[in-house]
Write a structure and sequence with these properties.
- By secondary structure, the chain is mainly α.
- The protein has one domain.
- It has 4 helices and no strands.
- The radius of gyration is 36 Å and the shape is elongated.
């Protein structure tokens, strides 16, 4: 049989273990999610990596906006006269002999 002192110590150990596990899961939300505890799904332990790329994408978008404001499209028209290369290769391409 268990004595009252053993039950009290077991309860104290259970409380300490529960508090430790709760603190661990709160401090390591990725581990908590991996273990199936989804209370901390919206938290990351180290979000500096993501913050860096968020600012990088923001800067890229800002540069794009500035460049887009000053961008002037150009139209390049091709000439209708065949080039010398086209004149020289056309008979070969159509089964003839070069002249």
């Amino acid at each position: 049989m268990l004595s009252a002192a053993a039950t009290t110590q077991d309860d104290e150990f259970q409380k300490i273990a529960h508090d430790y596990i709760e603190q661990y899961l709160r401090s390591n939300p990725e581990d908590a999610t991996e273990l199936g505890d989804h209370r901390f799904d919206g938290h990351l332990t180290d979000y500096q990596y993501f913050t860096f790329f968020m600012w990088l994408m923001f800067a890229a978008a800002a540069v794009f906006v500035v460049v887009a404001c000053f961008y002037k499209g150009r139209t390049y028209l091709q000439t209708q006269q065949p080039t010398l290369d086209e004149i020289a290769t056309e008979p070969i391409l159509h089964g003839g002999t070069p002249s």
